[in-house]
Design a protein that fits this description.
The chain is mainly alpha-helical. The protein is built from ten helices and no strands.
Length: 249
């Protein structure tokens, strides 16, 4: 991967979606680690501050999940601005975490709202596809037999995964595209979906690698997540640079 452009603002860079080989998944992670290594302590601090905000919000009855979903793209966009700053040889600061509140915030909230509504639709479809007698048993608080639980989980899990894939694909790059390229939520999610679809093999390889890293990270009292989660942020940014061709010729 070549060095990305540093002089031009992201919003002035054309978005040309490239199809890259699966081997680039590892390159994204390596490049992302370079961004993390530049300011490791600050990345950990940003993650801890985010948890200090997100966890209490999620505990608020009824509204916690809604607020969490709406705020997540804003903080994600802010951390992407932190990645951009590092690539421009600027310092990573705590203020970067809140950069999503400074510009195009409404569209970032819209990304969270669309994502939340999509998840709700998936949940409704999954529930309506289940055996209604078993659903009634669950609603009444009765315990299910192992056979009933097995018949419930297998098809519902498959349906949920099948429906979740396009939702996750649309969300993948959306916060970044909204904040860095000033796109609307709908346009950003459309472009994100197309970008991931065209690069499904490297994205799948990337997910598998992070699946292994996450398992390893939770072994030492979950402390490894202090590195793995920021690395997900930085490597998502480097995958964006690669897939959208934001490089010097």
């Amino acid at each position: 991967m070549t060095e990305p452009q540093r002089n031009n603002p992201p919003e002035s860079t054309p978005l040309n979606i490239r199809q890259v080989p699966a081997s680039h998944a590892w390159a994204w992670i390596v490049s992302g680690f370079q961004l993390f290594k530049a300011y490791p302590l600050m990345w950990i601090v940003l993650f801890v501050i985010y948890l200090a905000i997100a966890v209490p919000v999620s505990l608020v009855p009824l509204l916690g999940t809604v607020f969490g979903a709406l705020l997540a793209p804003i903080f994600a966009a802010g951390m992407m601005m932190g990645c951009l700053a590092i690539r421009r040889h600027q310092e990573l600061e705590i203020n970067h975490l809140f950069a999503g509140f400074k510009q195009n915030t409404g569209q970032l909230v819209a990304v969270g709202g669309l994502y939340m509504m999509a998840l709700l639709m998936v949940s409704v479809i999954v529930v309506t596809s289940l055996d209604q007698e078993i659903v009634a048993l669950i609603a009444s608080g009765q315990e299910l037999t192992p056979e009933q639980a097995g018949s419930l989980l297998k098809p519902s899990t498959f349906i949920a995964l099948l429906l979740m894939l396009p939702v996750l694909m649309a969300y993948w790059f959306a916060p970044l595209l909204v904040r860095l390229h000033q796109l609307t939520a709908v346009d950003a999610m459309k472009i994100s979906f197309i970008a991931v679809w065209r690069n499904v093999l490297p994205v799948l390889a990337y997910i598998l690698i992070f699946g292994v890293l996450t398992i390893l990270a939770i072994i030492p009292l979950f402390l490894g997540l202090l590195v793995v989660v920021p690395l997900m942020i930085t490597s998502t940014y480097t995958s964006y640079l690669d897939i959208f061709g934001i490089e010097q010729n």
